[in-house]
Amino acid sequence: MIKALPEALPRADGRPPARYVTLDGMRGVAAIAVALFHFDIYLMPHGYVAVDFFFVLSGFVLYRSYLPRFREGLGIGRFMAQRLARLYPLFLLGLMLGLALALQQILVDDPHAPASAKLATTMLFNGLMLPSPAGLPYYPLNVPSWSLFFEIVANLALIVLIFRLPRLALVAICVVSAMGMAPIILDNGSGNIGALWGEHGIAFMRTAFSFTLGVIIAMLPDWRRAAESETPRASGWLGVACIAAIGVLLALPVPKAWIAGYDLAIILVFSPVLVYLGSRTEPVRFAAPAAAFVGEVSYALYAVHWSFIEPMRAAVRYLRISPLPAATLFLAIMLTAAWAAVRWYDLPLRRRLTAMLRREARGARPLGA
């Protein structure tokens, strides 16, 4: 069984690694919300704005993790290689599962099957992690991958620009992005926008606002100073409350006329507040293993769940399972699949890629270094 450890990252001030079990749990619950939204929108009606929470969390974690290395001379190429080594394996697995489903549709003459030429074009572009011009979604075989492309864009912006900007400039990015995206989301009627061609503007603004705000949160001081060997966060029910809150926010049904405003509230206020609180408290001890586990499998769950949806829906219809038991079964299968993907595919491949990058880095050092 995989050992689901809390995330351990170097602190921005150079102190020893900090663990963020609450953030692990929140990330896992948000990934579950996305999967349930795609499987049955009525069970998680605001699951799509979990993406904005992910961007805030990513900005926070990457700033805390990589700022010390940037100050020590980490270059753009090595940083992006490290990020691709983390993101690409599961991205590729999700893409290949989508390809397998598409080929199966072609074999059975499914009217929804993609044309062969479009499928080839999609594989060419998506295989390079680039949006495909062959369909309306950027990633027709695995639609949720759109946010991974913008994550890569945000990562590049971090190492090229954000690390070098003063805090006031980062605040300006957040303000301008918020002012740009708010009227678009209100006009659209919800925050479920950004995954299709023609929506790249709002996708960039959502990414810029949330990712940059996550960086700003990472710059803020902790609530208390601790000894060098300790974590500055206390354990308690606030950590559990943060984990539960993200799920409640994404699941709460609201009247149709309120959806856009409610989504904006999650994007602009609730997600960053929860990341701030969650980064400064830990859950009570008995809840920590579950939080660590769902955090460990969260990216795999997000990356691979899309291709399971239609087969699961077909099975549910055939077996005449009611919605709540069907969603429970779907979630159990997806968590198991995500755990297996992490243990037998992602972790071994990432270890090899990391070892390869380290060997290349040692080989690139000048003589006498």
Q: Can you describe what's shown?
A:
The chain has one domain. By secondary structure, the protein is mainly alpha-helical. A two-stranded antiparallel ribbon has the order 1-2. A two-stranded parallel ribbon has the order 3-4. Helix 3 crosses helix 12 and helix 6 runs antiparallel to helix 9. It is 67% helix and 3% strand.
Summarize this structure as a short list of keywords or feature phrases.
about 375 residues; mainly alpha; two-stranded antiparallel ribbon; two-stranded parallel sheet; 12 helices; 4 strands; about 65% helix; globular; disordered N terminus; acyltransferase activity, transferring groups other than amino-acyl groups; Peptidoglycan/LPS O-acetylase OafA/YrhL; Acyl_transf_3_dom
